[in-house]
Amino acid sequence: MLAVFDKSIAECPEGLQSSVTGSVSALKDGLLANHFSSIHPDSVSINLASSGLMAFTTEKQNPLLPRLFGVVDDIFCLFQGQIENIPLLKQQYGLNKTANEVSIVIEAYRTLRDRGPYPAYQVLRELGGKFAFILYDGSSKTSFIAADAQGSVPFFWGIDSEGHIVFSEDKEIVEKACEKSSAPFPKGCFFTTSGGLKSYEHPANELKAMPRVDSSGQVCGATFKVDIETKRSASMPRVGSAANWSALY
Predict the structure, then answer these.
(1) pTM, to two decimals
(2) What is the largest CA-CA distance in the chain?
């Protein structure tokens, strides 16, 4: 799976941004989309106009960590992995018997977006299993990305020369556009358009960027670790009824 988002949809965290070294634009002349389709001839690409692109393939996938794609009401979701407590989540979200992992993620997001009763970190904790997913809401032009706490699914991100963030489970795909400005996506974390990068395992703590250095001593992206010394503000900002409050957590 592949997603490239404009910085208006996914603004790069400062720690990852400071490591930009390349000169490649992932979106210019369809560079990364064409590269992805050349590797996966059966792939499907979704043009998100000025917001970016998404691409998906079922070719050469791990049967234990299958890839899924779904669209509901202009919400696009790429999912890889397996959720173990599907029956419980189907009941919780009122989904029918045919619902799968990607249906559950989309419905969980819609619950958050429409002022559901749970904060985002709690909803993600309830997804038992091995997963990484990329969600884009075309109606509000927002993104929602997450990975499980064990990092069970290989999942990488990086930033290209124009500030676009690239997400993929294929490290080579990310490095094609981001060169050394790439890194594994942090375990147990989620990323949103309005809230940036946060840990759902430790929602009260800030995240600290730790530069990654390769064997030649060059900085190549950054990893993000929970900073046990720094706590987030405990107060809840007041928001209007139409606000997406889920991003505050």
Answers:
(1) 0.87
(2) 53
Measured CA to CA in angstroms, residue 54 lies from 14, 58, 144, 247, 248 at distances of 24, 14, 13, 22, 26
Residue type, 135: L
- CATH for 2-248 (3.40.1350.10, 3.30.2000.10, 3.30.70.1560, 3.60.20.10): 3.60.20.10
User: Could you report the per-residue pLDDT of 141-170, keeping only the tens digit for each?
Assistant: 999 999 999 999 999 999 988 889 999 999
pLDDT at 198: 93
CB 90 within 8 A of CB 97: yes
Report the amino acid identity of residue 36.
F
Q: What residue spans define the domains of the chain?
A: 2-248
Cα–Cα distance for residue pair 183/223, rounded to 1 Å: 7
60 φ/ψ sector (left φ>0, alpha ψ -120 to 50, else beta): left
